[in-house]
Amino acid sequence: MDGQPAGDAEERSAATDAERRSMAREAEPRPRGQETAQRPVGPEAEGRPVGREAQPRSVARTARHGPLLPAGLAAAVVAGLAAAPLFLAPFATTTLTRILVFALLAVSLDLLVGVSGLPSLGHAAYFGAGAYAAGWISIHTTSAVPLPLLAGAATGALAAAATGWVAVRAHGVYFLMLTLALGELLHQLAQTWDSVTGGANGMAAIPSAELGGEPLRLAGYVYWYVLAAALLGFLTLWLVARSPYGAALRGIRDNEPRMRALGYPTRIYKYAAFVLAGAVAGAAGGLLAAQERLVTPADLGFTTAALALLAVVIGGAGSLWGAALGAALVILVRDVIGPDLDGHGTLLLGVVFIAVVYLLPRGAAGLVRRRGR
């Protein structure tokens, strides 16, 4: 009888200790996210609908038709480009053709710089190699479309495949300098291989591209041929950039060690991007041969590579349409505005580059994205 009250007291003491520990755990500060997760707040707590039902009609309509706006804008741009030769003088049509060729080169470089994080200063080498191959095929075999274009793309891909496996092993500034050295190597080869490239004088008198047995001599016909091929190249790179492979390339660009730890063969992914970019650059070179009917060592030299990189920076690295816009600005300043400035077009490009770096660190594409928010 005397032991029973003592046992009851011990049980009450243990229960009291358990209650104290429970109260102490409840009183401990919790991370803000955990508190919010346990107690619904906002529309859910008040019984109001959330998600699309909670959005205003105008916002929901914008979200519903948002993807249609870029598609409609792209269709309008393509239609305008297709109709341009009907309203432009031959010189303006030729300039626009040159812009399309250089834009395809810049977009292929953006696959390396903006999507893959591989800043290259030797990309013009594959552009020039494709131009020489297309010119050689046109002179010695046939200029019928699309054989010279395919020869240019294949040569650009082969040149990139031969040099890319060494290049992608380097990182950062080492990759930049290595691509510069490889580009200068091919540039010197073009200057000294007289029997194939014509040496310092270049490859001249390239026949006009032929379609259905008829040569494309008029500026408008050449423009439409270049436009069709350039749009195909743009579409190819756009699909690659939006694919899971493109997402993996962006992951490698942002954090390659983490992607490697996740099991991605990062070096193979970068090498494939390098070869693809070389193929598209070679195709752009094939279009250059069809448009200019002249290829010189300068087309694969440092100046061309630097201008392509400048176009990517001005337009915004990582944005394919931004790179095309930057290419248009570069060609307009170099070929249209520059001659009226007594040869100071390069100086103006330098001023534009400095202004973009300081005022628009993400290029023209970054400004458009900021305005669209």
Description:
- This protein has 373 residues and is mainly α.
- It has a domain at 89-298.
- Helices cover 74% and strands 1% of the residues.
- It has 18 helices and two strands.
- The chain has helices at residues 3-27, 32-38, 43-46, 57-65, 68-83, 90-115, 124-140, 147-167, 172-192, 194-197, 219-242, 244-254, 256-261, 266-292, 302-315, 320-337, 345-359, 363-372; strands at residues 210-211, 214-215.
- Strands 1-2 form a two-stranded antiparallel ribbon.
- Strand 1 and strand 2 form a beta hairpin.
- Helix 6 packs parallel to helix 11 and helix 11 (219-242) packs antiparallel against helix 14.
Poorly predicted regions are 31-46, 48-67
Helix-strand makeup class: mainly alpha
Average pLDDT, all residues: 83
The coarse overall form would be globular
GO molecular function: branched-chain amino acid transmembrane transporter activity
Main location: membrane
Protein name: Branched-chain amino acid ABC transporter permease
Keywords: Cell membrane, Membrane, Transmembrane, Transmembrane helix
